[in-house]
Model the fold of this input.
Amino acid sequence: MIQQHHDPRFAAVDGAAVLAALRPCVAADALLHTTEEMRPYECDGLAAFRQLPLAVVLPANEAEVQAVVRTCHQLGVPVVARGAGTGLSGGAMPHPHGVVLSLAKMKSILSIDPAARMAVVQPGVRNLAISEAAAEYGLYYAPDPSSQIACSIGGNVAENSGGVHCLKYGLTVNNVLRLRVVNIDGEIMEIGSGGLDAAGYDLLALMIGSEGLLGIVTEVTVRLLPRPQKAQVILASFDDVQKAGDAVASIIAAGIVPAGLEMMDKPTTAAVEPFVNAGYDLDAEAILLCESDGTEEEVAADIAAMTAVLEKAGAKQIRVSRDEAERLKFWAGRKAAFPAVGRISPDYYCMDGTIPRKRLGEMLKAIAAMESKYRLRCCNVFHAGDGNLHPLILFDANVPGEFERTEAFGTEILELSVKLGGSITGEHGVGVEKIDAMCSQFDADSLAAFHRVKTAFDPDGLLNPGKAVPTLHRCAEFGRMHVHGGQLSHPDLPRF
Amino acid sequence: MDDIIRQWQDAVVAAQSPLRLCGGDSKSFYGEPSLGELFDTRAYRGVIDYEPSELVVTARCGTPLAELEAALADHGQMLAFEPPHFGAGATLGGCIATGLSGPRRASAGAARDFVLGTTLLDGSGRVLRFGGQVMKNVAGFDVSRLLVGSLGTLGLIAEVSLKVLPLPGMEVTLQLAMNECEAHIALARWIGENRPISASCWYDGVLSLRLSGATTAIAPARERIGGEVLASGEQFWREVREQQHFFFSGDAPLWRISLPALAAPLNLPGATLIEWFGAQRWVRGSAEIGPDALRARVAALGGHATLFRDSLPGVQRFQSLSPALQTVHARLKAAFDPRGIFNPGRMYAGL
Ligand SMILES: Cc1cc2nc3c(=O)[nH]c(=O)nc-3n(C[C@H](O)[C@H](O)[C@H](O)COP(=O)(O)OP(=O)(O)OC[C@H]3O[C@@H](n4cnc5c(N)ncnc54)[C@H](O)[C@@H]3O)c2cc1C
Done:
């Protein structure tokens, strides 16, 4: 179990005074402070990182959020926003001297405008609930993280979440039109507009993916899309992962933008098949799921084109879903990959690096070598279409040393992702988990710029402190300051 | 690092007074009048990396937009936001700094939607890198997208990585006689049916639509929508994008009004041309109602109005921001350009 670094800045926070000041802000049952009550909030989806906060508040509306934030600001208390707590990078992990501000009670869909294809929702609304509510109008909200039955739209905004369909339909940042945000002064900022742009800087883009460091999102206007008339998926198996990786690049090179393009390796299919009975080829080294959606005619043309590419790329078996039930069956295994892996191993650690597609094969080989180096198994699930990898490292937290080896394994994958021209995180965010890895991806100047951006919104550093952006001091300690082109930037400056 | 960038770093550090960033000088009309000494970005040019199968291109700011688009077209790809050039010399840097998008914006997304990464020379002469060359990347704040449309006020955008898309297999332009209201309703209905409409333009009682996609998808849409095929469709959309369409001629002030697509007709006194399924409305003149009243009306409908071309004495080019947003803007400017070296006042006074 890992606890947040001790942060001396907030050591003087007076817990009793904070509780007393928060009491008038929310209903009596919306302020939790006993260990027992707060236990469910001590971690998010990354359960290895835990910390109890000073208090948990659950405001019922925006005005209460403002009151809570103002109070915390006055008292100099950290505020950690929390949606559904499904985050996988410890972004919602509490601060020992801070307040967890849960948006879980703000879960109303405020309006759906079917003609304008927009929905206005509160931050605690579940991702899937938006599509469910829009279904009666033939509309849906496109970004579909695998956690969509549970995760909140506020959390999606904070993480810029993606899903299996984001190759064609974009990430959260491409599907949100407007936000209402409570800033650290407790004021409302309206960001974005009901149109397609807003005056001034694109603060909407800056706010999306900001991991609760810049403001508290209290209302989200999303763009809805008309449901495609038809969707069909190809299930292709390969006897070689490199070939499967090359097939992915060939599909894109052929001018096709599939609605989804996912890959699973052999250990993953072996784990999921008994779980979902999708009929996967268990002898295959890798399987690809390639989806097309649109009109009947478009789908037919895409499927034919993708089939041709896959055949040429050496697929040993190709199956096309015959109906909606079979399509969902093919997808079921992909969507259940994490829980299925959870059944074959006491614990697993999900990585989230992104690399250029053409480096997929190289990365897979390197991961295989790391498996022997760290004596741990790894199941690979990829959003192959956009080069986003989710290696799941299997370990047992009860075996001394395994978690440490797992972390080292993960760090090596992330550093390789950066080296291959990619990123340490494609969609799960930095949180506390990848904070040291940030030092490998960014140089000191760029990290300092992030701190200045943070300060522009939150001068006292009260919103989710210690997350997402490492201090330069921390990077120097970690010893992996990003070196660009063999040159340490500002070699003349003291290394903190 | 490149010699040019090193020289630029020195120049920025040495600068005692403002610099006016300029590429091909095609968009100087846009935004508030530029102040400061001319700083030409064209020397730093060329594509750095283009991998068609990755759908990503990285190029230097001085790269002519036409050259970049030609390189993409050679591989059957495009900048899907269809940026306006507004002049032969338009550069990639100016395209991203103004953040303007063309007819395909409403269906494909805006410039900001396609920016994956940037290299920025900030006001202290530091070279900063944000984002990257991959589709998905949530490490660090999304400063790259913040820079899109920042009009050079946060620094010199030196390099940009963009997501590109395959060119559509086929495009057909249809024209139908309709009034403004009918056009909004018809468009909303067809888009709701997932018809492959990539652009719309309503002007003077005629709705023009562009269908883009696979031949198989276009045929049924053509049948459903009806209207007449415009043979010179490609030229038509280029003229709309480049503001060479008849509507844009003359010298009455040009307002760009950004609104929810279905907002009711504004019924302003001047002529109107409507794009982006209703979300971008161009209005000429409208002196009678006055800029403040115009902006108040647009704001009430959830949008904002930009005085796009031709200045009016005492009228800001861009709609004012709320006090909370003004504060953030000023602090962001200070974060990237504390000495106010780059394009001061180009977006708002004091920024
Ligand atoms: C099984 C599983 C599968 C997953 N699959 C995917 C996937 O396919 N794609 C993907 O992108 N992610 C995936 N995730 C990760 C996770 O679900 C997403 O990051 C999700 O967006 C988090 O939402 P949440 O409501 O649970 O946020 P939380 O975990 O509660 O919080 C996440 C971050 O957002 C901040 N935050 C939350 N609400 C607000 C608010 N209103 N205002 C400001 N900040 C806020 C928090 O402070 C924290 O930093 C998966 C997770 C699990 C467990």
Notes: Residues A 44-45, 80-88, 91-92, 103, 123, 145-147, 151-152, 154-156, 158-159, 161-163, 211-212, 216-217, 338, 427-428, 464 surround flavin-adenine dinucleotide (CB under 6 Å). Chain A has a mean pLDDT of 93. Residues 438-486 of chain A form one domain. Chain A touches chain B through 98 residues (CB under 8 Å).
